[in-house]
Amino acid sequence: MGFARTCSVALVGVDGVVVEVQADLEPGVAAFTLVGLPDKSLSESRDRVRAAMVNSGAEWPQKKLTVGLSPASVPKAGSSFDLAVACAVMAAAELIDPRTIADLVLIGELGLDGRVRPVRGVLPAVLAAAEAGYEHVVVPEQTAGEASLVPGVSVLGVRSLRQLVAILTDAPVPEEEPDEEGRPDPMLAGLVVPGAGSGTGLAGDPGDSPDLADVAGQRAARLALEVAAAGGHHLFLSGPPGAGKTMLAERLPGLLPPLTRGESLEVTAVHSVAGILPPGKPLVSRAPYCAPHHSATMQSLVGGGNGLPRPGAVSLAHRGVLFLDEAPEFSGKTLDALRQPLESGQVVVARAAGVVRLPARFLMVLAANPCPCGRHSTQGDSCECPSSVIRRYQSRLSGPLLDRVDLRVEVEPVSRADLLAANGEPSAAVAARVHAARERAAARLIGTPWTRNAEVPGHELRTRWHPAPGALAAAERDLERGLLTARGLDRVLRTAWTLADLAGRGRPDAGDVNLALELRTGISRGVPVGGSL
């Protein structure tokens, strides 16, 4: 009788659970049983592992074989357990020393020819292994760079089962024949899932992103964009077609500072699980930008799918920008599903297979036309939409959703003078002010779990960091008259702190609060746009 064990990792959302892979050989009729809540793709590993071992020159044991995945209560999905199962079977058959794999974490899919194919979710899997105390991890060669991002873990990248067996037995490592030059590498097919990242863009170099200087005019909208980037405030842009709403939203990621090391690992883990991490770029260092089509379903927006939920657009936009163009055209239920992640920064999805928590701390930008034809309230008043149609169209964005949006700006049509004028301020200059404002906020919030003004609870702002005396007078009047909710007052105060940070002031004054009220309600407060800065 032979017994051996090793370890792999099961992914539940973007969190990993270390799984012990046990192999037991007993006399009897040759059979292969896999237990431990495997899904369909994992159950098929019996045929992949058998063929991979035989084609790698190893003898398949002609005994009763049982492979167990523990803990059995955790659902296991995917083909990433193949390498661990093969090594456990070989160790049970005494083809390799069981002690050499007992403390290894093995992640990878096996091809029928014995090659180790890359899989999605390597980074969160290695993070889970490191947190559990494991120091040695074996992954496919193509994902070794991604696994090496985790500190304190020794990573071995292998291209075939033959190579791994040679390393474990101290035998000469065979050289795998490289693919012909110019031919696409089929091994990379496991890293990217076609269609999984539709509407998602990972920013490259800062110089490749669209520049804010391309936007003509729109002084108020440009200010709102700067405030949104500096404080992490959600933004609603309303205006006729062609005014520049989409142009403004596309340039917002270029104003955000580079991700910190911890934020980069969070974003990379989500994109690795989703299968949209670009090959050769294991670490995402710039804020992502996700712009789903208005026909997107609720599952594709907040996460879902068969079995355990997969990351949706809100998770793919984690630490970045989620842009919903033509927002009233989205399903009402789909939009209202955003209310919980907007407040908590995460999505909690419950399914029969389990409950999954997915990160979703994003900056949301909504864009909408004033009416179906887009010409309502513009100069010339050429809109022919009935008033009932206009009310129905505008009511598709619910009050509770809009109450969570800090900045609401009317984007007016661009005038001839603005089009012929010189280019506006470039993104680099605005990004420098945003970076300085974020540093001021971070210095003020040091020692707290928050780094941006939009994350600070209202109670803390009112009791711990006080604005200038009398600064909240106008906001308090609006609250008493019903123009602001209690949540709205807190969000106005957060925006005022961001305006003060941009201006370099120690705390917001009445001008900052009035400008924050104007940016939220659209009602003029007598403060020139940009005058408070």
Tally the helices: 21
CATH superfamily of the largest domain: P-loop containing nucleotide triphosphate hydrolases
Query: What's the N-to-C terminus distance?
Result: 78 Å
CATH topology of the largest domain: Rossmann fold
Strand content: 15-25%
Contiguous uncertain segments of 5+ residues: none
Which overall shape is indicated by the principal axes computed on the Cα atoms?
elongated
CATH domain class name of the largest domain: Alpha Beta
The main sheet comes to: 6 strands, mixed
Radius of gyration over C-alpha positions, nearest whole angstrom: 28 Å
- Identify the CATH architecture of the largest domain: 3-Layer(aba) Sandwich
**β-strand number:** 17
- Structural class designation: alpha/beta
Task: Describe the protein.
- This protein has 533 residues and is α/β, with parallel strands linked by helices.
- It has three domains: 2-189, 2-Layer Sandwich (Ribosomal Protein S5, domain 2), CATH 3.30.230; 197-424, Rossmann fold (3-Layer(aba) Sandwich), CATH 3.40.50; 425-532, no CATH class.
- Helix content is 34%, strand content 16%.
- The protein has 21 helices and 17 strands.
- It has helices at residues 40-43, 45-55, 82-92, 122-131, 144-147, 161-168, 219-231, 245-250, 261-274, 298-302, 313-316, 332-336, 339-344, 387-394, 399-402, 416-420, 427-444, 458-463, 473-480, 486-503, 510-521; strands at 2-12, 15-26, 31-35, 64-70, 104-106, 109-110, 116-117, 136-140, 154-158, 200-201, 235-238, 289-290, 321-324, 346-351, 354-359, 363-368, 407-410.
- The strands form five sheets. The chain has a six-stranded mixed sheet.
- The chain is elongated.
- The model has no long low-confidence stretch (mean pLDDT 87).
